[in-house]
Amino acid sequence: MGQTSLDDDDLFGEAASEMRSDVEASLDAARAALPDADDIWDVEADNTLGVLNALKTALDVGDAEDHLRDAKKWYTMGERADAFEDADDLAEAIEEVDDLIADIEDARDQVGDLTATIPHTGTLEEFEDGDDGADAEADADTEEAEA
Q: Which of 18, 62, 105, 114 is within CB 3.0–4.6 Å of 33 for a Cys-Cys bond?
């Protein structure tokens, strides 16, 4: 029975080490899936709407959420099994990536909202054309009144 217990402890230790590795690998994959800073800051387009659309695309977190979910899953299993001797660093890393993903998604939503509020070029041009006609009529009325 002593040998079985020793083998079980060794197996549990191996499993705990593998769980930690799985959490770390999933966190690394989540970080790698996040957008590059250059892709966010160096957006090119011909107009404002194009810039906003490019920025929204650049703010896509891709598969980072799925990788973070895997990290949380393995971390939770390890915590419940009391497999980690010191998991504070894992908890902090998970929270850091989770917060970063949330910030990027918030920024993406805000860019989407801003994109939706930009008036279409045609609408502005129609408005400008309408104002020019109204201004010309007002000028003509003023000239007639002065004469």
A: 62
Query: What whole-number distance in Å separates Cα of residue 119 and Cα of residue 138?
Result: 26
* Joined tokens for residue 54: 């490019």
pLDDT digits (tens, 9 = 90+) for 13-27: 888 889 999 999 999
Q: End-to-end distance of the chain based on CA atoms, in angstroms?
A: 117
Has this prediction a pTM greater than 0.85? no
Q: Residues of 30-53 as b/e, b for ≥16 C-beta within 10 angstroms?
A: beebbbeeeeeeebeeeeeeeebb
- Please name the residue ranges forming H helices in 1-147: 2-33, 37-41, 48-58, 64-80, 88-117, 121-146
Contacts of 75 (CB under 8 A, 6+ apart): 19, 23, 87, 90, 91, 94
Contacts of 39 (CB under 8 A, 6+ apart): 58
